[in-house]
Amino acid sequence: MSSKKNGSKSEKLSFFKEFRTLGVHVREYRSAYIVGLLFLILTDAGQIVIPRLMGRSVDLISAGRGAAREVGVLMLAVVLLAILVAVGRYGWRNYIIGSARRIEADLRVRLYDKMLTLSGSFYSRHKVGDLMARATNDLDSVRMATGMALIAFVDGVFMTIVILTTLFIGYGRLGLLVVAPLPLVTFMALFLGRLVGPMFRRVQESFARISEHVQETLAGIRVIKSFVREKRALDAFQVINADYGRANMSLIRFWGMLFPAMGFVAGLSVLLLLYFGGIRVIDGRMSPGDFIAALSYLGMLIWPAMGAGWVVNMMQRGAASMHRINEVLDEIPDIIDDPDADDTVSLGDLEFQSVSYSYDDAKPVLKDVSFTAPAGQSTGILGRTGSGKTTLVKLIPRLLDPPPGTILIGGRDIRMSTRSALRKKLGIVPQDVFLFSDTIKANIVFANPDASPEEVETVVDAAGLRADLPFFPQGLDTLVGERGVTLSGGQKQRIAIARAIIADPDMLVLDDALSAVDADTEERILGNLFEVRRGRTTLMISHRVSALSRCDRCIVLEDGMVSADGTHHELLAMDGFYREIAELQKLEHIEEESA
Asked: Sheet holding 412-413: strands in order across?
C-alpha cells in the first residue's frame, strides 16, 4: 500500500517537474498574464450578471404589468454587458494566448540554440525527424498548456465558485439538489483524464517515427529510385503510418467515450432542475424568471465541471511534450570548454604527443600517436581505410575531445583555448561535404560573409572551380539544391575547398578532399592551393601519393599508429606501405596511359 502511495506521489511530482523549464518564460510575461487574467475575470463577471437581468425581464413580461420601459432598460444593460464581455474576451485572448505564442517562439529558439551546442554523438543517437517533431508538434502542445489550459482552469474555478454561491444563496435546497451530479463529472475528468498522458506520449512518438522515415526517404530518394525500392519504402511508411493511426484512435476512443459520459452525467442536473424547479414554478414558489436564470447558471456551471477534463487533457499532453523537449534541453554536451580556457590561440607547430583515442570504450582507433606538423609547412597523411586518419583530424578542432595535454599548437594545449576561438583559426574540408540549399556563392562565403568579390574570384580559381562556371546556368548565383544535389561530387568538393580557404585560416585541414576528382584536376587544384597557402600550415589526408608528394613531409598511419614519418623521397626509400602504394599507383597510371 505504501509503495503505491509513494509511486503516485512521485508521478505527480514528475508531472509538474516537466514544466520547470517554462518558469523563466512565464516570469518574463507575467505582467501580460496578470492583465489577461483580469480581462478573463471581467468577462466571467459580465456573463454571470446577464442571466439575472434576463430572469428579471422574463418576470416583468410574464407579469404583464406593461413595464416595457423597464424591460427596455434591462435589455440595454444586457447589450452593454455583452459589449463588455466581447472586450474582455479580446483582452484575455490577446494577453494570455499571445503570451503562450511568445513562450512557444522563445522555447523554440532556446531548443534550437541548445541543438547548436550539442556534440556530434547526440546527433548519432537522435534522428532528424524526431528532433523536428519535438520542435513542432511538441511545442504546439506546450503552447496549449500555457494558454488555453490556464484559461480553462481560471475560468472554471471562478465560474464555479460564483455560480455555486449564487445557486445556494438564491435557491437553497434546490441549488444543492441540481448540482449534486456535477462532482461526479469532475471526478471522471480528473481521475480518468490521467490516462491521457501515456496515450498522447505514444501519439507523439509515433509522429516522430513518421517524420524520421519521411526525412530519411526524401534525403535518400535517389538511392531508393536507383535500386527500384519505392514499393518497399511505401510499405514501410504504411506500417509506421498505421501505428500512428492506431495510437491516435486509442486516444480518440478514450476521449470520445469520456466526454459523452461526462455530458450524460451533467445532463442529469438539467433534468433535476426541470423536474423540481418546474414543480416550484407551478406551485408559485419560484418565478419563471428565476427558473430561467437558474437554468442559465446551471448551463454555465456544466462547462467548468466538464472543462476540468479538458484542462487535465491539455496539461497531460503538455507534460508529455515537455518531457521530450526537456530531454534535449537537459542534454549535456560531450565536449565542453575547460573552465580555465580563454580565447587565446597560440600560433606555431602542431604537436601530437602520445595521443590515444577510442569510441565508447571500444578498441582504440588511435594508439600512442606522436608527430609534429611544423608551422608554415604542409604535412600529408597516408593510411589504409580504417587506420584512424579522419579521427585524427577531428581531434584538432575538438569535434572529438582529445585527452588533456596531448595535442598542442604553439606549445599550448588546445583544450586551454575555447572551442570557438580554436575553430576560427582552422579551415576544414571533411570527406563528407555538406552544402546548404543556397547559391554557390553563398556556400563559398559561408565562413566569411564579408568577403569581397575579388576574394571570391581568387578562391574560385584556387579551388579549380573556374572551368565549371560556364556549366552553371546563373554562374556563382546558381542554386545548388538541397545538400548540393544538382552538383557532381567533384564540384561539391571544390566548393567546400573554396569555402575553407576564403576564411584565410591559420591551419587548413583537407580530409581526402579531392577524392572525387581525377588525378589531372587534382594536380591543378593542388598547384593553385599550395601557391595560395604558401607559408601557412596545411594538413592533408590523401590516398594518392602524387598529391602527398607536394607536402613538405608525410606520416603513415597503420592500425592507428604512426608507422613512418619523413619527406616524400625519404618514405620512397623505405620499405613499407608508402612505397607500396606509390609503386601500385605508378603502375596503374602507366596502364591507363597505354590504354
From this structure: 366-373, 350-357, 407-409, 412-413
The grid coordinates of residue 525 equal 587544384
CA distance 507 to 407: 14
Delimit the domains of the chain by residue range: 103-329
Q: What is the DSSP letter of 518?
A: -
Could you report the per-residue pLDDT of 539-555, keeping only the tens digit for each?
999 888 888 988 999 99
Question: CA nearest 258: which of 191, 197, 192?
Answer: 192
Fill in the amino acid letter for 97: I
Domain 103-329 in CATH 1.20.1560.10? The answer is yes
Residue 281 near residue 161, CB atoms below 8 Å: no
Cβ–Cβ < 8 Å for 413, 346: no
> Is pLDDT of 191 > 60?
yes
Residue 208 exposure: Cα atoms within 13 Å on the Cβ side: 19
Specify whether the CB–CB gap between 364 and 375 falls below 8 A: no
pLDDT digits (tens, 9 = 90+) for 136-162: 888 988 998 889 888 888 888 888 888
Q: What is the pLDDT of residues 115-128, one digit of tens each?
A: 888 887 888 788 87
d(CA 266, CA 180): 10
The rounded distance, in Å, linking the Cα atoms of 282 and 274 is 11
Q: Confidence band (pLDDT; 50, 70, 90) for 12?
A: very low
- Residue 93 has which C-alpha cell? 485572448
Which pLDDT score, from 0 to 100, does residue 591 have? 66
How many Cα atoms occupy the beta-carbon half-sphere of 18 within 13 Å?
23
Amino acid at residue number 569 = H
pTM: 0.73
Strand 553-558, strand 561-566: pairing? antiparallel
Residue type, 595: A
Do strands 407-409 and 350-357 pair parallel, antiparallel, or not at all (unpaired)?
antiparallel
CA 371 to chain centre: 41
